[in-house]
């Protein structure tokens, strides 16, 4: 029987856009997106969606109330859905066994326990969240342990590969849709029903059905290998700076080899986002769990290089500014972890901002999408920053930091009076600014540190800026 009702548990960056696109492409299916977070659901039901994602608002408007609904009544919609996506967060564990490495499976487990308890009839339970290999086994055991005689379950893996900022396009035209299933008649039948949903708009040739463990592992490996490319090109950037090579030219030449490909070779101040680091750590933990230390060490280095790149960039800033930024005003352009999102999770801007604060600077931030309270919280809450002995004279460390952070709503106002501009996010709009006007309004010498290789450095130099960037001597 075809799927008539879907319930997605978790209305986040994955659950929201994925469910919305399914609702658009499959008007005969009712799609309920559910979450325990009432504020998030309230926003999905309002005109101010809880996430900024280009193109998403129009689709939500077209489908909401027709066959797309957002609700906090998770249990009610799980109970009578034919197919349930588990799309909850799986962050790195911050406590106990596996702290700092293993993914925290608390939300997955509590969703599975709830499904086991309330489900009625035949259910296909789909892991959409990124999970370690064998997570489907744990979900199955939890569902069976519920001894719910009214329900029958089939568990599938269907990891999501969308990237924030291009989620809608990625969902419309996925490189592949991956479905992992038990190699049994029931498993294959469930996989077919899920594939039929995607076939409404995705060519069957890119829908790949594999065994469950391959599917779970392929998701972790895809992210690890994308991050590995960035760390590889970032490792090249330091060598370029000392030898006189230009990392963009090196990346272009390397990427023109069709076996390597040109994407994901942009040097930067390091990758951010909620997943690359988390998923590599999860992979490292998996290797260690099976006693495979060499593989663990190999992948750990991708993160080591990322952290090194971030701190190296911070040191470049301080060193260029006569070895001190104390009491200087530095403007950070961009706080999101990449352009076209308001998400700041693991953003390199946080590392840079905190470093500059620790060095005693006053920091102005301008980002077109990130909310002020998010910036303040990222820079000052749970901070491990040590007080610098700059006689800045406030009692509480947090209050003191807050006092030195200004969130601005205009790039020109943010830059005015500053000693330096630091580009931390590749927002296109930073390219279109009038840098002559900005230069005039700044302290001299006026520095620009381009952490994203975004701007025209020759033009900036001609205006009078002292320009520094990653991967190229200027
Ligand atoms: P998110 O934090 O934005 O959203 C998760 C949502 O789940 C939250 O709103 C939370 O309130 C809700 N939730 C948690 N436990 C719940 C429960 N028991 N019942 C109901 N709701 C519950 O997370 P996200 O960025 O959407 O990521 C979700 C998963 O998808 C993660 O495993 C992540 O690794 C993976 N993923 C994320 C992306 C991305 O671009 N963000 C891309 C691919 C895969
Ligand atoms: C990434 C993957 O691209 C998605 O396929 C995956 O589904 C997702 O993680 C996930 O599992 O969460 P995302 O983190 O949203 O998507 O964004 P990316 O475009 O991958 O960018 C990640 C970071 O790498 C950003 O900070 C970006 O600026 C940086 N980056 C990207 C570089 O520094 N250089 C590049 O060449 C590309």
UniProtKB/TrEMBL annotation:
GO CC annotations on file: nucleus
Superkingdom classification of source: Eukaryota
Record EC number: 1.1.1.22
UniProt binding sites for NAD(+): 10-15, 35, 40, 88-92, 129-130, 164, 275-278, 345
Catalytic activity: UDP-alpha-D-glucose + 2 NAD(+) + H2O = UDP-alpha-D-glucuronate + 2 NADH + 3 H(+)
The UDP-glucose/GDP-mannose dehydrogenase C-terminal domain, residue ranges: 331-457
GO biological process assignments: glycosaminoglycan biosynthetic process
Pathway field: Nucleotide-sugar biosynthesis; UDP-alpha-D-glucuronate biosynthesis; UDP-alpha-D-glucuronate from UDP-alpha-D-glucose: step 1/1
Pfam families named among the record's database cross-references: UDPG_MGDP_dh (PF00984), UDPG_MGDP_dh_C (PF03720), UDPG_MGDP_dh_N (PF03721)
Keyword list, A-Z: NAD, Oxidoreductase
Positions of the catalytic residues: 275 (nucleophile)
GO molecular function, one term: NAD binding
Keyword Metal-binding attached: no
NCBIfam families the record matches: NDP-sugDHase
Function field: Involved in the biosynthesis of glycosaminoglycans; hyaluronan, chondroitin sulfate, and heparan sulfate.
Similarity-based family: Belongs to the UDP-glucose/GDP-mannose dehydrogenase family.
Stated name of the protein: UDP-glucose 6-dehydrogenase
Gene source species: Hypsibius exemplaris
């Amino acid at each position: 029987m075809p799927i008539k009702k879907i319930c997605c548990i978790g209305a986040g960056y994955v659950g929201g856009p994925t469910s919305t696109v399914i609702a658009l492409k499959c008007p005969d299916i009712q799609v309920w997106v559910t979450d325990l977070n009432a504020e998030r659901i309230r926003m999905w039901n309002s005109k101010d969606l809880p996430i900024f994602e280009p193109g998403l608002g129009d689709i939500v408007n077209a489908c909401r109330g027709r066959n797309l609904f957002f609700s906090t009544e998770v249990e009610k919609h799980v109970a009578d859905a034919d197919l349930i996506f588990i799309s909850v967060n799986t962050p790195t564990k911050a406590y106990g066994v596996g702290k700092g490495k293993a993914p925290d499976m608390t939300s997955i487990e509590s969703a599975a326990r709830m499904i086991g308890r309330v489900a009625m009839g035949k259910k296909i339970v789909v892991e959409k969240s990124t999970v370690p290999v064998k997570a489907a086994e744990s979900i199955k055991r939890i569902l069976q342990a519920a001894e719910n005689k009214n329900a029958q379950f089939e568990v599938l893996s269907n990891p999501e590969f969308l990237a924030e900022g291009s989620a809608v396009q990625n969902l419309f035209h996925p490189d592949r849709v991956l479905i992992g299933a038990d190699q049994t008649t029931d498993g294959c039948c469930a996989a077919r029903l899920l594939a039929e949903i995607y076939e409404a708009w995705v060519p069957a040739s890119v829908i790949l059905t594999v065994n469950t463990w391959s599917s779970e592992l392929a998701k972790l490996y895809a992210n690890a290998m994308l991050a590995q490319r960035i760390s590889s090109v970032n490792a090249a950037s330091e060598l370029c700076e000392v030898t006189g090579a230009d990392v963009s030219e090196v990346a272009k030449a390397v990427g023109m080899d069709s076996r390597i490909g040109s994407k994901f070779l942009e040097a930067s101040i390091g990758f951010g986002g909620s997943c690359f680091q988390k998923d590599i750590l999860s992979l490292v933990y998996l290797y260690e769990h099976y006693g495979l230390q060499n593989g663990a060490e190999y992948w750990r280095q991708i993160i080591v290089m990322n952290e090194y790149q971030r701190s190296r960039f911070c040191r470049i800033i301080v060193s260029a500014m006569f070895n001190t930024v104390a009491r200087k005003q530095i403007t950070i352009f961009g706080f999101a972890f990449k352009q076209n999102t308001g998400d700041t999770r693991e953003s390199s801007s946080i590392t840079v901002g905190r470093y500059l604060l620790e060095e005693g600077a006053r920091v102005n931030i301008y980002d077109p999408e990130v909310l002020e309270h998010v910036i303040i919280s990222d820079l000052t809450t749970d901070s491990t920053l040590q007080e610098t002995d700059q006689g800045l004279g406030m009692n509480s460390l947090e209050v003191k930091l807050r006092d030195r952070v200004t969130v601005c709503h205009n790039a020109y106002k943010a830059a005015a009076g500053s000693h330096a501009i630091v580009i931390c996010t590749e927002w296109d709009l930073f390219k279109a600014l009038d840098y002559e006007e900005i230069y005039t309004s700044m302290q001299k010498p006026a520095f620009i540190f381009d952490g994203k290789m975004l701007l025209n450095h020759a033009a900036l130099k001609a205006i009078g800026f002292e320009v520094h960037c990653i991967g190229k001597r200027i």
